[in-house]
Amino acid sequence: MLTMIEFLLPLMIVLLISLPLISVFRGKSSKHSAKLRLATHVSLFFALVAGCILFEANGMHVFAASTVDSVNQMTGSIAQGLGFLAAALVTGMSALGAGIAVAAAAPAAIGAFSENSKNFGKSLIFVALGEGVAIYGLLISILIMNKL
Fold it and tell me: How many CA atoms lie within 13 A of 74 on its CB side?
């Protein structure tokens, strides 16, 4: 059974992490507040990781493995674990790169299309190339997972 602190503490952590996003959803954000919000999210993430480590060290289980038997039943090798980590990194980093590419290409495509409507097809290709990076990363991730 979960104790009250094991139930409320993760709920409070999720609430504290999502709290800075309220101003974004209301539409009240400036460049300074965006930097502050980013710093808040990064610091809360590392506080969350530190809190999980402290709870596990004190015997309170943050994750689902609350019994010793379930930990002993896990099978797999270091190579499998590193393979899963590689698949996750490939997917995440390719999505991040695609987001950066689309953030640069989409406004330029909109500007080119607004000046001349014949530029729609040409500008759409550059936006699609940025999205292709994420699809290629997902494909590589699936290939990695099939090898495990």
Answer: 11
- Average pLDDT, stretch 113-140? 86
Q: How confident is the model at residue 94 (pLDDT cuts 50, 70, 90)?
A: very high
**Residues 75-148, CATH architecture:** Up-down Bundle (1.20)
Three state DSSP letters for the chain: CCCHHHHHHHHHHHHHHHHHHHHHHHCCCCHHHHHHHHHHHHHHHHHHHHHHHHHHHCCCCCCCCCCHHHHHCCCCCHHHHHHHHHHHHHHHHHHHHHHHHHHHHHHHHHHHHHHCHHHHHHHHHHHHHHHHHHHHHHHHHHHHHHHC
Phi, psi dihedral angles at 82 (to 5 degrees) = -70, -30
Q: Where are the domains of the chain?
A: 1-73, 75-148
- Tens digit of each residue's pLDDT (9 = 90 or more) over 28-45: 666 666 677 777 777 877
